[in-house]
Amino acid sequence: MEISVSVDDPDDPRSLEVELDFPREWLEFTDPANDSHVIKADLTWLLSRWTCIFARGCHGIVKGAAANGCCSHGAFFTDGDDEKRVKKAVKRLTPLTWQHHRRGFSNWTEMDTIDGENPARRTAVQGPGKPCVFHNDATFPGGGGCALHGQALRDGVHPLEYKPDVCWQLPIRRDQDWSKRADGSQILVSTLSEFDRRGWGEGGHDLHWWCTSSPEAHVGSQYLYLEYEPELTALIGKAAYGKLAELCAKRAELGLVAPHPASPAQQLKLTPRA
């Protein structure tokens, strides 16, 4: 497989991104722990070599703010439980670990709207045009990047325990819907796919750069389904992830018919982890 990319401006990182529509391979199976739960997974995405390159070549979603990565805006909470979990983690931060501790400790959320109509709560930002209040500058003595992420690592837990749902789930998109079968039975369908530009709504197309479509971020040392084992397990459950990993490994041995165009062909033939 050869990758052909048309570059209009070689200085524009977006020019390297692949198109959003291309052939994908999908897998569907029943959760071993729950026969009313069906998993639909995008193998093209889960068997890609994507990896987070924050502070390692990430161009950021806002032009001129590469150091902010995808933290240039506040993160909306999925529900009350999400906000409560983050609130508990915030209490573990100190001025030595959170650059904006004094400003944000008692005021780290703001009201906004996702659809332009309905109010929703999200993490606050440092000011107009500035990043999330939890984003530490690279020069901050306590460590740059997400203060919640850094605290989780210091506490010896996975960052998904402390960060807002949307932050730790990226770049995996999980959609869940109840579906009625022809025999009248109902199943919960969890769909795992790539969180591409369209995942952000109309505004996603205006992002300065988005990593899932860029070959620059498809440089991981292992398949995405392996690198994101904790996140995928949290999204679909331990038993379902075990089955997903088993089926992904088998598909990897055979070789994908529709590999991700951002993952170079020579990097796709990896040996799945035993």
Q: What keyword list fits this structure?
A:
274 residues, alpha+beta, 4-stranded mixed sheet, two-stranded antiparallel ribbon, 8 helices, 8 strands, globular, disordered N terminus
Structure description:
- The chain contains 8 helices and 8 strands, in the order E-E-H-H-H-E-E-E-E-H-H-E-E-H-H-H.
- It has 274 residues and is of the alpha+beta class.
- The strands form 3 sheets. A 4-stranded mixed beta sheet has the order 1-2-8-7. Strands 3-4 form a two-stranded antiparallel sheet.
- A hairpin with a 2-residue loop joins strand 1 (26-31) and strand 2 (34-42).
- The longest helix has 17 residues, at 238-254.
- The chain is globular and about 55 Å long.
In summary, what is this structure?
The chain has 274 residues and is α+β, with helices and mostly antiparallel strands.
Q: How would you describe the shape?
A: globular
Order of strands in the sheet with the most strands? Answer: 1-2-8-7
Residue share in helix: 10-25%
Separation, N- and C-terminal Cα atoms: 27 Å
List the helices and strands and how they pair.
Layout: E1 26-31, E2 34-42, H1 43-46, H2 80-90, H3 101-104, E3 109-113, E4 119-123, E5 135-136, E6 145-146, H4 147-155, H5 165-169, E7 172-180, E8 186-194, H6 224-227, H7 229-236, H8 238-254
Parallel strand pairs: 2-8
Antiparallel strand pairs: 1-2, 3-4, 5-6, 7-8
Helix pairs in contact: 7-8
